[in-house]
Amino acid sequence: MSQPIKFTHTVAERFLRYVVIDTQSDPTSPTCPSTEKQKNLGRLLADELQAIGLVDAHLDEYGYVYATIPATTDKKVPVVCFCSHMDTSPDCTGKDVKPQIVRNYRGGDIVLPGDRTQLIRAAEHPALADQIGNDIITSDGTTLLGADDKAGVAEIMDAAHFLINNPQIKHGPIKILFTPDEEIGRGVDKVDLKKLGADFAYTMDGASAGDIEDETFSADSATITIEGVSTHPGYAKGKMEHAIKIAAAIVDRLPRNNCSPETTEGKQGFLHPVEISGALEQATLGFIVRDFDDEGLKEKETLLESIVKEVMRDFPRSTYRMEINQQYRNMKGVIDRHPEIMDYAIEAIRRAGLVPVKASIRGGTDGSRLSFMGLPCPNIFAGEHAIHSRLEWVSVQDMEKAVQTIVHLAMIWEERASGPVSA
Ligand SMILES: [Zn+2]
User: Fold this and answer.
1) CA 205 – ligand 1 centroid, Å
2) Residue 3 has what pLDDT?
3) Which residues contact 13 (CB under 8 A, 6 or more apart)?
4) Is residue 283's pLDDT more than 80?
5) Quick one: pLDDT at residue 423?
6) Catalytic one among 22, 149, 181, 182?
7) Distance from the CA of 85 to the center of ligand 1, in angstroms?
8) Tell me: the pLDDT tens digits for 399-418?
9) Residue 293, Cβ neighbours under 10 Å: how many?
10) What is the pTM of this model?
11) Average of pLDDT values for 235-246?
12) What angle do CA 317, 320, 323 make, to 5 degrees?
């Protein structure tokens, strides 16, 4: 690069403006967005984007915000989208968030002033060790903070503002997408990809500065229905086969030292019972199955069925049905078809002065669903930590690095584009 870019320091200000707006989503609501209040933030963001100069910025009836940063180059550059979600988790209240800033963090525990029993302990939050000298934003301890994912929202907003005010920076057309209801798994239900018109996308919704994720779990559900043999309990000897007891025996024989959420990490998958219901005659067991590839899923489903069969041997007149349903798939398969998506993002993180760290998500994201809808979409760090809790925190400096990463990434897509638009 010929001369260094002069970045601004306005992302924290935006962030503090957004976190005080309650946008908690609600899994029990059938509407989209699940809560009308999410539109309060959506409306503000659309207005701010309009004020920045993005003339097509708007909030739609489903609570999505769309906008375009027009290209500043003659080259034909793929259309890249940056995406964040506006809702916060239903697991922890997001009403009346009162953020505090701990400036120039010197290490040690952080006491939250609204509830002094709430302590962000350095020993339990090892990522704090990388934040010495930084300014850390937390809630007052009575609510979550909402860095997940208003940090991402603020970063994209700030990058948009920066690019519009620095037209000498060359980039292709850039799309902005803010979604509702990500936390309840419905963040892309009503997205209009045709209207968005992007070739590739990045969610800004990760943790530590430098992190980039192109892998999610692959996920199935497994439902086992057991038909036992019912009789009057007074005359049951040698006849009754109790469906509840069969179900309990299956759960009892699940592996104890592996293959469960509480015994796995990293790239290991698991089998996890999530529901049990029943009576004498019939019982149902619901499982979720997780792994990073299809063989791993298959292995775990085979293991589950072999446990079921083994148990059923003791109940010869009872029967079972096992049903597997696909929930979502690892996005890596889609993203790997376009290696430049990750290569450019890694280069952008480096140019922002960070060490890129490739990681995988032990869950699903909006990005995994977008990837399979035809919009390949890895996840870049936003700086959020201890999410879905009252101990949630983010540092101002990490958010600034995320803004720089977005700007560099926009530039790299332009630099690597082949040539001028044919006349
Ligand atoms: Zn999130």
Assistant:
1) 5
2) 66
3) none
4) yes
5) 42
6) 182
7) 7
8) 999 999 999 999 999 999 98
9) 17
10) 0.89
11) 97
12) 170
